[in-house]
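chain below, 514 aa
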Amino acid sequence: MSRRLFLASAAALATLPWVAGRSLAAAGRRFSFASDPFTLGVASGDPTSSGVVIWTRLAPKPLEPGGGLAPEVVEVAWEIASDDAMKHVVRRGTTVATPQLGHSVHVEVEGLEPDRWYWYRFRSGDAQSPVGRTRTVPDPSSRPELLRFAFASCQNYEQGLFTAYEHMAKDELDLIFHLGDYIYEYGGRDNRVRKHLGNEIASLDDYRIRHAQYRSDPLLQAAHLRCPWFVTWDDHEVDNNYANNISEETGVSSDDLLARRANGYQAYYEMMPLRASSIPRGPNMQLYRKARYGRLAELLILDTRQYRTDQPNDDKRSDLNENALDPRNTMLGAEQEGWLKAALLESTGTWNVLAQQVMMGMVDLSPGDDDRYSMDQWPGYAHERMKLVEFLAERRVPNPVVLTGDIHSNWVNNLRVDDRKPETPVIATEFVGTSISSGGNGTTDSAQRLEALKTENAGLKFYNNQRGYVRCTVTPKTWKSDYIVVEEVTKPGAPAVNKGSFVVEAGKPGAEVA
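prediction:
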């Protein structure tokens, strides 16, 4: 790390709000806001069997630098209740919103009962937030009979409305997973559904305002209001197709990319319901982590962007040549890979879930003899990918299921150690969800494309190119994934349709049509 970047990182560390008594005293005066400071809503995330993170950010003018607040500490009260009328408060307290973290608030509530719903809200000065709903997960030793959740990714504000969240909020879900591309970094363009504010983002203020523009969407706020989220990022939270400290663009130094990454990471932490363990240290932020849903499911949230080596080959699509198969290529990095394998060995879950970003199926995207695989996805890191699936097989990890976003289309892949060898056994199942809005409306008829892809890929069970999300129903015996799509995202109020359902039976890897 260069001296300049080291000093920048040290400065970022110095801003972390380890708040002393004097800061609390300064925050003690009662604020009177000229307008609603809770414009960005509330959210919750990373639940355990005894607690959950509740989040908000004070921003009376969210699309301005500083969110419309002076650079001073503001006291915020919070409470969590066992009823939606907030009459039976079970936990309450006060915290502070500091300018160093964009006046965001991350409260790690503890002392709650396992496997039950709660409601929460915030107060600051003379203002009160909306009431959010959250829940704890079951006790780690319990045996839940049911888990209902959805997963989503890729919500380009300019290319479509967030109609999928309108339908998701009506589903009775225990959890939501967001698998990356929560924002897009591109500058605003005319003649689209809506327009990004400003040019391509790079500074901390840029990233804060872009997140605030997205979070101002009422449909996205409503989905956050309904249940806790587990979040992870992909590339657009910083810059398209970046790999660790390497930019997609020529002429951008590692120092410059890491400085930009530090800005993107801090804004991401500020806007997400994450624990203090994820506070960024300059351009570094730990996001991979795990959670348990009783003994029904082990939930492993991965980061396939921060630690990876550069994408092999100059083309975005290539055959699996020696560059793609190079054992030095890594998607996870050595430390995360070791953590993941240890977590899988320790798991007591019936289902072992890898919530991650890019497609793990080794899918040949070109018909005929001219093989083409995406080098930004796991085929560009084929050696590590095959060793991981081999590990699942050799260690007999029960019922591995991979959840994936990124690709703006729906897929179901039955995974083998080497997907090019259809005679070998299926080891795991991958459910790939489409985008919330990225790519616009998509196409309603994907049957011809599906048949062409199937001739090249024995593990492929489903393909669809519309917008939406995947809703999963998990029991000790079966896993069911429903592919929910919206007819269009360029106009409000589009209906939702179940385009296909697929089931995995416990003990029998691979998905079949429900």
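The longest strand covers residues 496-505. Confidence is low (pLDDT under 50) at residues 13-27.
thats it, cya
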